[in-house]
Amino acid sequence: MAKVKVHVFLKPGVLDVQGKAVEGALQGLGWPGVSNARVGKLIEFDLTGVEDPEAEAKKMCEQLLANTVIESYRIEAT
Are 76 and 45 in contact (CB under 8 A)? Predict the structure, then answer.
């Protein structure tokens, strides 16, 4: 069994509306030094019955977990 973590984030240059909202909120709460905030997602799951968990997770990202037109992803499998 493999523990898989997939980190999905917007590609550079893609407007991150959530990141801008977080940035503005943090600045409004007294952290004026916050800038360039980006929001992503983390997907964790257990994966069994495959020889190469990273390759399988890559297929999952390409088909479902990430919109590869505007998002990149990083896979950790242990």
Answer: no
